[in-house]
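hi! just following up on the protien thing from before. the input was this:
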Amino acid sequence: MKKIQIVFLIAIFSCFTLQSQDLTKAFGAVSKEELEKNHYELDKDAEAIVLFDVGKSYFIETSNSFDVVFERTTRIKILSKAGIKWAEVEIPFYQEGEIYEMVSDLEAYSYNYENGMINKVPFSASNVYDEKINNFWNVKKFAIPDVKEGSIIEYKYRIVSQYKFNLRDWEFQWKIPVLYSEYEVKMIPFYEYTWLLQGASKLDVYETYKEKGIGREIGPKGRFNDNTYNDVVFLYGMKNVPAFEDEEFITSINDYIIKIDFQLSKVNHLNGISVDIISTWPDLTKELLKNSDFGGYVSKSEKLSQKLFDAESLSGKTENEKFNYVLDYVKKNYNWNRKNDKYASKSANDFIDEKVGNCADINLFTIGLLNSVGIEAYPLLISTREHGKIKYDYPYTHFFNYVLIFANVNGKNVISDATEVMSLNNRIPERCINDKGLIIKKDQVEWVLLESSFPSQIYTIIKIDLENKQISADITKQSTEYDALYYRNNYGENIETILKQLNSKNYVIKDSSITVFNQHIKERPYILNYSVIEKAEIINDKIYISPFLNESISETSFKQKERKNPIDMTYPIKRSFKSIISIPDGYQVDFTPEDQIIKNQLFELNYSVNKTDNSVSIIFDYYFKNSVYSADDYSKIKFYFNEIVKKGNEKIVLSKINEEISSIIN
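and the predicted 3d structure came back as:
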């Protein structure tokens, strides 16, 4: 085997730059030189840097099969106080029925150079705890102690897995720079995998070879003397991987980060029979329709509908009325337990009795009820934004984690989700707007776009008065579409909840002023009224007023020079502001910002000022017309956001009227 060297970054200016000094991967072999380095030349703003991240997967024989062992060793240099958070480590592990993974051999240390010595502090195993993420994934969490600016942390662990279908992926890229990342996989002849490299055109290290030696025997010694094999080793590596920065306005970091993904493609049995695991979309659809927790659940729900309501009473209604009746019935009587899944978690009878379930329980049940009243409806399999995009060339059910409702109502296709009580019945939640979904229909493979072309708008009206060096403002916010859904779910009509949300803007809120309209009338805008007080900014007898107070954005989300990934805003965004400032007695308008108009196919902005003797009115609108923008549009989008921040935070200046001039005028 060719030796793979890790290049340690060292320089005379106390920073990390490329040199040819080797750094051992041996666990615990931390040097004084590593501890003394204090920044990384290729990314001077880096809060921490992964010195190396080394993983290995291999198979071990069990009594009747094989398990997969995954080992990992990671060393990180903390470069600033902000980087201390990397000492909080999370290890995800999988469990599905009787298939499980076990984490063991966990070790972790911090290293500091103090008083001329390297101080090594171990973590405490008693502080490790498990947290459940969903029905399949848990995460083991722990914190490494005594970590400060300049520390090095190091940890390693081992996972034994019975889950061979999806060999553990490997992420070369982190949110901090990575000097060297290596993944070694030892394959056995009984399982064949395909692998995909995402986010990069090539690897810095790629080797494959067959291990030398006698080889491994299959089964108990002497039983399969003719069946020996040698592992085939695959080695993947990357150097100097930059930090992942495109975190704002993306679906999931997993869709774009540089990583390698493995999928089981074939199983070779001892009797010579080989089974292809890569299916086809028609076969996948057929299996789902036969599954008792999917297609069978829909059929059972349809039969049970007669116990829940009289379908005959709906015979005279339009398809729109029937559709809304069923959706409203389910939303009113059944609750989502906040769990995502593509399969029902219980029988339809149990769901009816317990009235709570995962998204599949609710939406597959609703599909059955829709079919029972004559509405053509089908399950729509999707992957949520957080779960990542589907790989269309690989027909695997594990790419999906959610099921929606696809219905034909009066000849129009409607996508819906009965878990979202406060949403319109012909909308899906923001978490589900992610590329495409697969309609599960007999003898057909059909994909449908999951997109929203409806602009989501917040219209804010602000009326400002000044008295006794105080700004008093009445604010009205009218929200539609996904903005209205956000307010209904997060603000509602609860005054305490609204106060908590508004107080984050550093206002003094008049409690009695808070009123809400249309919380439960989903077809109308959600309206929130409140009044605030804040101290006026007075400098040299001039009053400086931000006409939109703290309601406009104060800083842009786009700060890097360039971007490689699309800008996914989920849906078109409209923001409209109108501010009316009453001019107090004895004052006049000294300065107003310039009017501005931007209008093109991507974006619109309008800023205009109207002055009278008694008031100043400012109108400020902007509109991002697309749900998704290409990376090529990044410089334009960045410019638009900068203009929004600038115009939204420009100030009106009022000055005192000169008393002599005032007396002459009067």
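Residues 1-22, 220-225, 660-666 have pLDDT under 50 and may be disordered.
The longest strand covers residues 99-114.
cheers
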